[in-house]
Amino acid sequence: MFENIKLEQDGEISILTVNRPDKRNAVNNVTVEEIDKALSQIEANGKTRVMILTGAGEKAFVAGADINELARRDMLLGRSDTRRRQEIYTRIEMLEIPSIAAINGFALGTGLELAMACTMRVASATAKLGQPEVKLGIIPGAGGTQRLPRLVGMGRAMEMILTGNPVTAEQALAMGLVNQVVAPENLMDAVRKLAAAIIANPKMAVQYAKEAVLRSSEVSFASGLAHESYLHALSCGTEDKKEGIAAFLEKRSPNFTGK
Ligand code: COA
Fold it and tell me: Is-contact 93 214, C-beta < 8 A?
């Protein structure tokens, strides 16, 4: 049903794969719209607890925006195309469920921007991550100038964006750009293990915690604390809170229901 992506369901995990391996999974406008539709399907299915985002093949996660489309991009398209990508990547960031980017190879330009919109990132040891836009005479347009400094700090973000040079998976790990680096053959297992650790926790606590953490980069410290307190209060009203605490006190495993 999709041309450039694949959407699979594995229990409580949805796996969204950008699927143009012969073009190193370069994201064109069709791909962006398909990602948007896939997100609607994931939200509507009522069972997904974690989304995994990856790229098809062994070489690339996503090797950037489709350079053939970039060649046709004038100022008007430059504005509209980037606003649309920003909107959809922000939709990923704000999903109620967490998302994990399984970075299986090159994550360049819009590929790194897509990965940064995810809640966490796990990279294959062979991956390279970068914002090479300046080398093409443009600048990042799908959130790179905003999300990269938030993740790695101003100095490192400036270096990556102004040189356009990629970093290795190990360098990305050292700067906090990815959460883990694993051997290529272990990538999906490592990502599933991380997903399982999240899924083992109560659904509403995970959702409220994600929302509270996301606020930290958008609002003042005082507003963030107030928001955290309201979300904490909501979590105190869940059945899983009663169960989690009862299970601890009774020295047994909890049986969470997601309510
Ligand atoms: N847009 C469109 N097509 C792309 C692409 C992109 N961003 N990245 C790769 N491709 C295409 C190539 O044109 C080539 O197509 P062809 O077989 O029809 O000629 C195919 O994918 C394979 O690319 P190739 O360069 O031969 O693969 P590689 O494995 O040797 O190198 C990269 C991989 C990622 C290093 C290299 O493709 C690259 O530098 N891509 C562009 C990265 C970039 O600047 N992205 C930022 C855009 S803002």
Answer: yes
Mean pLDDT to the nearest integer, 145-157? 98
**Is the separation of the CB atoms in 122 and 100 below 8 Å?**
yes
What proportion of the chain, given as a percentage, has pLDDT over 90? 99
Please tell me the pTM assigned to this model: 0.97
Instruction: Say if ligand 1 is within 6 A of residue 18 CB.
Output: no
108 lines ligand 1 (CB under 6 A): yes
For residues 44 and 161, state if they share a domain: yes
Task: Note whether 187 and 207 are same-domain residues.
Answer: no
**Based on the structure, what is the number of domains in the chain?**
2
The verdict on 124 and 186 lying in the same domain is: yes
Provide the pLDDT for residue 122.
99
